[in-house]
């Protein structure tokens, strides 16, 4: 359910992000309220709220006064781009650095990746 290796509010935000990316929460539709999230996840409502507000601050959610939080227009692409950038920093940059240390040029590295992907 929630990744317990991270602060709970970040895990809540990431769970909502995952739902946006997988289509559970399409753009312009509501996400669960603070109280619904808190009850479902059995966490403090303030923690759930902090996760939702983090997404609102990032432009992923928009608050509609008296109605709740909704997935912002363009949120799916925004999240994809953020995750791609994060993926590159976490995996591609270290991969290229290690390949350079081993004398593997980009063409050879591409061949290695293609070969592994076809398995």
Automatic annotation (TrEMBL):
HTH gntR-type domain sequence ranges: 6-74
SUPFAM superfamilies recorded: Winged helix' DNA-binding domain (SSF46785)
InterPro entries: Tscrpt_reg_HTH_GntR, WH-like_DNA-bd_sf, WH_DNA-bd_sf
Highest taxon in the source lineage: Bacteria
PROSITE patterns, alphabetized: HTH_GNTR (PS50949)
Entry keywords, A to Z: DNA-binding, Transcription, Transcription regulation
Single annotated GO MF: DNA binding
Name of this chain's protein: DNA-binding transcriptional regulator YhcF (GntR family)
Source organism per UniProt: Brachybacterium fresconis
Lineage: Bacteria, Bacillati, Actinomycetota, Actinomycetes, Micrococcales
């Amino acid at each position: 359910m929630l990744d317990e290796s991270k602060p709970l509010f970040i895990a809540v935000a990431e769970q909502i992000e995952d739902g946006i990316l997988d289509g559970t929460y399409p753009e312009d539709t509501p996400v669960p309220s603070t109280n619904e999230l808190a009850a479902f996840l059995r966490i403090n409502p303030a923690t759930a709220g902090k996760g939702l507000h983090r997404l609102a601050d990032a432009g992923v959610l928009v608050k509609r006064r008296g109605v709740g939080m909704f997935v912002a227009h363009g949120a799916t692409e925004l999240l994809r781009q953020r995750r791609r950038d994060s993926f590159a920093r976490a995996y591609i940059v270290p991969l290229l650095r290690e390949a350079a240390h081993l004398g593997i040029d980009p063409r050879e590295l591409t061949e290695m990746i293609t070969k592994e992907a076809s398995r």
